[in-house]
Amino acid sequence: MDSCTLCPRRCGAQRTESTGHGFCRLPETMRIARIQPHLWEEPPISGSRGTGAVFFSGCTLRCAYCQNADISHRNLGRDFTPAQLAESLRRLVDAGMHSISFITATPYVEKILEALAIYRPPVPLVWNTSGYETVDTLHKLEGVIDVYLPDLKHFSPAMGKLCAQASDYFEATSAAITEMCRQTGAARYDENGLMQRGVIVRHLILPGLTSESIALLNWVKENLPAGTPVSLMRQYVPCNDVSIKGLDRTITTREYHRVRDHMQALELPGFQQEAASASTDFVPLFGQDESYI
């Protein structure tokens, strides 16, 4: 792939089958760190049997605190062809998954579309993303992806730059999430409460940054269709030897309550995590034989 512009960085970098020279340092060949059932997503995604989670290596962000830094920063994983991915998707469906989740998959959009041309799973397809997407890339997924699960991480350019090396994070992500909502329309669920189409916006509360959280929730209320659910996450744990002052601790109960209460005051529907979620015990095993179904 010459002149890659799939993410908002628009590096214009050359990516070959074996090398990548852009911000993500990823080759064109798909690199995948884990393909397994996953039970820990939001209830409308995981249900009782789980989602078939495909964790792609690499990321278009470089969040200083990332709990999956082995794959997002260091690109741990194994190479897959579209045919191999298609066969793995088939095994996930045979295992009874309620949905298939493509996680941080943006650099591999074209290869994923090739895999889905070989085998299109008969369950909802979920695009689990940092939110840092271009509208042009999302257009490639229109009519393919059923459910979008974007993060909405940072509001100010200063925090986007400090935490994720992306001062334009909110500008890009707000436009991307608006496009996701346009594509899917209002959330739709089956008789068991599993989402068939729609958008769930995730927000991770960060220590010392509750004002950012409140600004982001206000934006959701004022700009997204009524009924768009928000997943409010309290799972932050300092990871990846994060050195940013203030991010070396978990959030306090008071910080969580401030943001949760604001979400409730805005009457935003959605989900809240339990305090026990702030643990590295929930980080999956990546890049090992048992990481692949």
Task: Tell me briefly what this model is.
The protein is α/β, with parallel strands linked by helices.
Description:
The chain is of the alpha/beta class and 293 residues long. It has a single domain (31-284), classed as Alpha-Beta Barrel (TIM Barrel), CATH 3.20.20. It has 9 helices and 11 strands. It has helices at residues 43-46, 69-72, 82-94, 109-118, 135-141, 157-164, 169-184, 210-223, 253-265, and strands at 30-38, 51-56, 78-80, 99-103, 125-129, 147-150, 188-189, 195-199, 201-204, 230-233, 270-272. It has an 8-stranded mixed sheet with strand order 3-1-2-4-5-6-8-7. Strands 9-10-11 form a 3-stranded parallel sheet, with no helix packed on it. Helix 9 links the parallel strand 10 (230-233) and strand 11. Helix 3 crosses helix 4 and helix 8 (210-223) runs parallel beside helix 9. The model has no long low-confidence stretch (mean pLDDT 95).
Largest sheet: 8 strands, mixed
Specify the CATH architecture.
Alpha-Beta Barrel
Q: How much β-strand is present in the residues?
A: 15-25%
Main sheet: strand order: 3-1-2-4-5-6-8-7
What characteristic shape results from the CA principal axes? globular
Q: For this structure, what is the CATH homologous superfamily? A: Aldolase class I
